[in-house]
User: What shape does this take?
Amino acid sequence: MLKRGASGEAYRPKFSILNPALTQTLPAYQTACGITDIIAHLYERYLTNTKNVETTDRMIEALILAMVSQGPKAVQNPDDYEARANIMWAGMMAHNNSCGVGRSQDWTSHGIEHELSAQYDCAHGAGLAVTMPAVFTYNMKHDVMRFAQIAVRVWGCQMDFANPENTAKAGIEALRNFLISIGMPKNFKELGAKESDIEKMAYTCCYGDGSGSGKVYGFTVLEQKDVENIYRLMF
Assistant: This one.
């Protein structure tokens, strides 16, 4: 089974009404999955190779901070209208590309996760909770300071100027711990995933789009072996 995204202006509504009250019956687990996906959409835009994008950097950081503040409230109390209103507003900003204007974007985590939810029918947000920390750890050295920057500005990590990798790693771990704290899975096993499926999923991830490139393009360029290594990091 293949799971692929589609995009285009035909999918974008000209007008929409967003009512947070309509989300109040959503179970806590699915609420947490939505929160995770919003954060993923923000991170996938934050991980850019475009320089001098301070304004959208700050927008993304602020929206993630809002999710960290408001997300647990909605998970713990489904009738917290104010928390859900803030989440819905952040979700709109995360998904309508306001934060991605003028900058290259990543989407590696989404591509790698799609294989998990296609293979195991896990919720997309749950798959992302396990995928993002693994992808970020694997790609961290491509631009350590970008990961260190968000670690300091969003997660409150101490900047280690002598070894920025320590700060970058601390930020990734802080993200992972936050997602676990709202009820998301922490590893491959909790998704129901199997090590024996890794090679097949990595192949489909790299070749299943029909382009024949055998690569996943984003913050870095990944080949099939890279994707296999990322899946193994999820253990």
